[in-house]
Amino acid sequence: MQLRYAFRLYPEPGQRTALARAFGCARVVFNDAVRAREDARTAGLPFPNAAELSKRLITQARHTVERCWLGEVSSVVLQQSLRDVEAAYKNFFASHKGERKGKRVGAPRFKSRKDTRQSIRFTANACWKITSGGRLALPKIGAVKVKWSRALPAVPSSVTVILDAAGRYFASFVIDTDSATDRARWDEPEPGSAVGIDLGLTHFAVLSDGTKIDSPRFLRRAEKKLKKAQREMSRKQKGSKNRAKARLKLARAHAGVADARKEFHHQLSTQLIRDNQAVAVEDLAVSGLARTRLAKSVHDAGWSQFVAMLQYKAQRYGRTFVKIGRFEPTSQTCSTCGHRDGPKPLRVREWTCPACNTLHDRDHNAAINVKQAAGLAASACGAPVRPEPVLAQREETGSHGTLIRTSAA
After folding, report:
1. pLDDT tens, position by position, 239-257
2. Residue 310 CB neighbours (<10 A)
3. Banded model confidence at residue 385, pLDDT cuts 50, 70, 90
4. Nearest residue to 367 (alpha-carbon basis) of 290, 302, 276
5. Per-residue confidence band for 392, with pLDDT thresholds at 50, 70 and 90
6. Which of the four pLDDT bands, split at 50, 70 and 90, describes residue 183?
7. Is 271 exposed, middle or buried (0-12, 13-18, 19+ CB in 10 A)?
8. Using an 8 Å Cβ cutoff, are 4 and 406 in contact?
9. Rounded CA gap, 230 and 217, in Å?
10. What SS3 string covers the chain?
């Protein structure tokens, strides 16, 4: 399995200038490649291949007056921009033909220097390295200071330098991990241990064993601060330096909310995967719920990110992950006798089964039903009622293989 380990970078002023130059050159090559393909499509000609684009847009362009500054950055960065264009068009055509799962992907668009995220990628042939002093030495940029929060488990195959909207720099390393080594890091949980999870808004998650995890509501708690920062930015003149400062302040406030939410998801998903042999959740229609009056609370909860973490961590550490259908009536069915009592409004938090007269907590009952619907309920002898499902697989959009993201401050 491939994982991403992200660490904070602290470049010096001269290195910031060199990185900005590299971001700009990579963006120009990307836009030139998209323009060349669009011109060929308009003229009814075959799309130019990667070798032709590399020769025309990089090798020959360096010797022209208009693009001579492309020689000031590493050629690997420019070649990786061409690879990104190829991958973007490949995903677009696969999605258009119905060969790619998920939402339909649009055609590649031109990048802007005002985009909230800038990035460049260095592969192994770029001769980048981690120095003995713990700095990241990048070609034509220099040795950049890195804040290491943990050691890398293996030698990275590539590194991506990212500048986010909050003005922070990150180095994202791609690591090939060994599944056997990963599984040996944790003790095996008790045989047959499984948990069903019911995600909600009143409580972020209710487990089938009755545990209730409160929703942190990071966005709601920071809403007053965010509104103030937004008002301050809106009062600044467009194009002024004061507006740029206010925009950066607002972006940092939003980044703090996102980072706190991601850390909460990481800690909870790690705990659940470490303590259980199998985990089951419900496939929620998040995109549909995000169009209702509960949209802000749904986005604040971040269910999709949390479920994705459960999925890749289960695959990494050899656990079983099951996602049941979204139309399973988990809130309508009695987990004791199986009687279906029909839909109930959200204000009903407890109900009594008319068949067996059992009093149910709505969320706890749903979590038990999620576990049972996934086939993870144990019999009297401790064996699963149904055979265990296969391990979940996850492929990251735009990657060349299975790639999972982790983060480190």
Report:
1. 999 999 999 999 999 999 9
2. 23
3. very low
4. 276
5. very low
6. confident
7. exposed
8. yes
9. 19
10. CEEEEEEEEECCHHHHHHHHHHHHHHHHHHHHHHHHHHHHHHHCCCCCCHHHHHHHHHHCHHHCCCCHHHHHCCHHHHHHHHHHHHHHHHHHHHHHCCCCCCCCCCCCCCCCCCCCCEEEEEEHHHCCEECCCCCEEECCCEEEEEECCCCCCCCCCEEEEEECCCCCEEEEEEEECCHHHHHHCCCCCCCCCEEEEEECCCEEEEECCCCEEECCCHHHHCHHHHHHHHHHHHCCCCCCHHHHHHHHHHHHHHHHHHHHHHHHHHHHHHHHHHHCCEEEEECCCHHHHCCCCCHHHHHHHCHHHHHHHHHHHHHHCCCEEEEECCCCCCCCECCCCCCECCCCCCCCCEEECCCCCCEEEHHHHHHHHHHHHCCCCECCCCCECCCCCCCCCCCCCCCCCCEEECCCC
Pairing, β 194-199 against β 169-176: unpaired
The number of beta carbons lying within 10 Å of the beta carbon of residue 11 is 21
Active site members: 198, 282, 363
Phi, psi dihedrals of residue 169, rounded to the nearest 5°: -105, 140
Q: Are 173 and 5 in contact (CB under 8 A)?
A: yes
Q: Please give the pLDDT value at position 344.
A: 86
Confidence of residue 52 (pLDDT cuts 50, 70, 90): very high
Report yes or no: 203 and 213 within 8 Å, Cβ to Cβ.
yes
Is pLDDT above 50 for 400? Answer: no
pLDDT at 178: 83
- Side chain identity, residue 17: T
**Beta pairing, strands 194-199 & 203-207:** antiparallel
Q: Is the pLDDT of residue 268 over 90?
A: yes
Q: Report, as an integer, the average pLDDT of 95-113.
A: 91
Extract the tokens encoding 54: 């590399």
* Residue pLDDT, tens place only, 142-154: 999 999 999 998 8
Residue 403's DSSP bridge partners are 2
